[in-house]
Amino acid sequence: MSVKLLGLCLLLDLLCLSWADDQTCLTSASSCDECVQSGPECAWCTAPNSNIRCQTLKELRRAGCHKRHMYNPQGRLQVVKNDSSTEPSIATAMFIQPQELSLRLRPGVSHSFPLTITIPTDQPITELTMDTSPLPAGLNLTFSSILKGNPLVVQVNVEAARCPSERDDSTQRQNRTGPWSVLITPRGFSLSVKTEITLECQCDCTKNREKNSPGCSNRGDLVCGQCECQQPYAGQQCQRDSDSFISPNEDFCRSGPNAPVCSGRGKCVEGFCECERRVNPKRDTAGDTASAATLTKRTKIKKTKTLSNSMCGGRGKCECGECICDDDWTGEDCGCSMETAACMATNQNLCSNKGMCQCGKCICEPPYTGPTCEDCPVCHGTCRQHVDCVECRAFGTGAKKDRCDQECGYLTVTLVETQEDMPQPGESIAFCKMRSSEDCVLYYTFSRTPSGGEATVVRAKECPRGL
């Protein structure tokens, strides 16, 4: 099978089934695996006792599921081997970078990567055809040229149609999700790129099983935030003994003697209501009788407490005493912002990967501090990280003296006469004693500022005699 590079992406002659654009998540999914397999946009909420499990990220946020509890695999690409060419500039052999990749692929979510192909100089640069080894059914590779000439850059796009199901024949089920080794070879050459592809059809959280979990009344295992109850127990927290119900009695599922079972919004199972989901998937019907009136009565105190001054903080609407928050807001009264801009550190990581962004603010892991967890006064690395810039900005010497403006422009320096004139070390101010390039001792403090950093430096350096 082959695809020619003419700036067009031609599909390989493979069976390829794809989800429709209006694919909705399987809200009734009984497991995380079933949820993520129902669509590429579907995520699972691992928060214990969550009223909603399988939905899009947007709907899970609206339902109050925190980002840290959302499981939404998007696949990942890793370059395994990427050797550089040892040939001289006038090459007589083809060379490809990278040589080996590993790809975890979620069906419905495409991944792309470039291949740089150096064509032998004694070969005419013509149309190049890419061949692949046989592919599993439903796996699709396309190619396009994004840079012509020599070297040639080829973009490879990989996508899987769906996860295999139990309905697939035994041959397909034998190696359901990989890993599959796929070779990509320029036609007419022996050099190939090896790509190992594995489908992400199972949730990693299933590996973390908490046996006899207190969250499951010590009667079941907690898996991906959901209880798997031991017999004969049932319920969201394994709180019901199903053997205690000799015969299901629908009277337990009625709000009154002649009231409809589960208020007409669910079914009675072993004397308890299993409520249907509303047409609006943002909120489930809840309560022993699935009655909206019962829900409102049950949450009346909560409603008076949290919504008396401003209805859901002006950032949502109240339904049956609970807030349905607008986009980018969550919490009981929609007072928690999902905005993360204020948590973005200078290294473009949320909270410097040293904390969690909650309600638009960083909650730092000790000993890190500051608005984006970039400060660590007790960490020796803070002083070492900035010493070269302190030296070139304060004294015009050191390893960075020739590129000080380019690399150290973030740092503002103030010179003082003695150590007594320096700011006192504190939670956000690091005291540093470091050796300079001249083997002199520098005394300075460093603190993080919105524009970068600020150092207060003692003018006099302690140098060996003769310097």
From TrEMBL:
Q: Which residues form the signal peptide?
A: 1-20
Q: The Integrin beta subunit tail domain covers which part of the protein?
A: 383-465
Q: Which InterPro entries does the UniProt record give?
A: EGF_extracell, EGF_integrin_1, EGF_integrin_2, Integrin_beta_N, Integrin_bsu, Integrin_bsu_tail, Integrin_bsu_tail_dom_sf, Integrin_dom_sf
A GO molecular function held by the record: integrin binding
What keyword terms does UniProt attach to this protein?
Answer: Calcium, Cell adhesion, Disulfide bond, EGF-like domain, Glycoprotein, Integrin, Magnesium, Membrane, Metal-binding, Repeat, Signal, Transmembrane, Transmembrane helix
Q: Does the keyword Signal apply?
A: yes
Q: Where in the cell is it found?
A: Membrane
Q: How does it sit in the membrane?
A: Single-pass type I membrane protein
List, alphabetically, the Gene3D superfamilies matched. Answer: 4.10.1240.30, Laminin, ligand-binding face of the semaphorins, domain 2, ntegrin, alpha v. Chain A, domain 3
What is the superkingdom listed in this entry's lineage?
A: Eukaryota
Which family does this protein fall into?
Belongs to the integrin beta chain family.
Protein name per the record? Integrin beta subunit tail domain-containing protein
Biological source species: Dissostichus mawsoni (Antarctic cod)
